[in-house]
Fold:
Amino acid sequence: MNDAERELYVAITAIWSGLRRARGMSREELAARIGRSAKTVERYEIMAQMPVISTLMLIATALGTTLQRLLDSAAILSGHAERNTAVTGR
Structure:
């Protein structure tokens, strides 16, 4: 993983973990909604493990948003908005 990818991953994780807390959802609740263990969700949030794209989609849905919104927000937060636009066409 290069630095830009890591920055984007850090931003995505910060956004969805912040959304989870803002919605008053525990790791256990999120884990149950996405079919993973609470320990796995914790590992995602501390960046000890990376979720695959299909899991990110489940996380976004469980939090009432879309993967595209997570990616767009993360690109802005990490300073890579132009790069994300080139990749997604948005």
Notes: The two ends are 23 Å apart (CA to CA). The chain has one domain: 3-84.
